[in-house]
Amino acid sequence: MTAVTQNEKRHRAATFPGTGPAAGIPNAAYGPLDVLWESAFDRMCYLVSGVDLAIKNAKRYRRLMDQITSATGCTEEEVLAHGDKVRAILFFAHDKLEKQGALRELSGKSRVEYRLAPVAPVF
């Protein structure tokens, strides 16, 4: 793959059209973090890379994956790798907030807002 193609993919990912509950795509949270997504691409990759989504809901997985790959030109592997990177960033953000005590006061289904800046693509 040439650098131009990778740059095109990055550009398409950065301009990925926003989707939301109206489009049948739920807002995604990470545990007690109510994630405020600055990148629709990051959110979609996060959703599609969910544990066992491809097995438990193959139809939804395929719909999401096809939407992302057709809009960006990314391969399925690139999308999943990016989703895993987003998940890792959220894991460490959760861990940091927990160590700082920011999650101590939460009860029940309450959440803390966490703004996630666009994540640099892995491709």
The strands making up the biggest β-sheet line up spatially as 1-2
How many helical elements?
5
Shape: globular
- Structural class by helix and strand composition: mainly alpha
The biggest beta sheet reads: 2 strands, parallel
Oligomer: single chain
Query: Rg to the nearest angstrom?
Result: 15 Å
What would the average pLDDT be, to the nearest integer? 88
> Which H/E pattern describes the elements?
HEHHHHE
For the terminal residues, how far apart are their CA atoms?
10 Å
Give the strand content: 5-15%
What is the number of strand segments? 2
Low-pLDDT segments = none
How many structural domains? 1
Helix content, binned percent: 40-55%
Describe this structure in a few short sentences.
The chain is mostly helical and 123 residues long. The chain is 53% helix and 8% strand. The longest helix has 25 residues, at 76-100.
Describe this structure in words.
The protein is mainly alpha-helical and 123 residues long. 53% of the residues lie in helices and 8% in strands. It has five helices and two strands; from the N terminus they run αβααααβ. A two-stranded parallel sheet has the order 1-2. The protein is globular, with a radius of gyration of 15 Å. The model has no long low-confidence stretch (mean pLDDT 88).
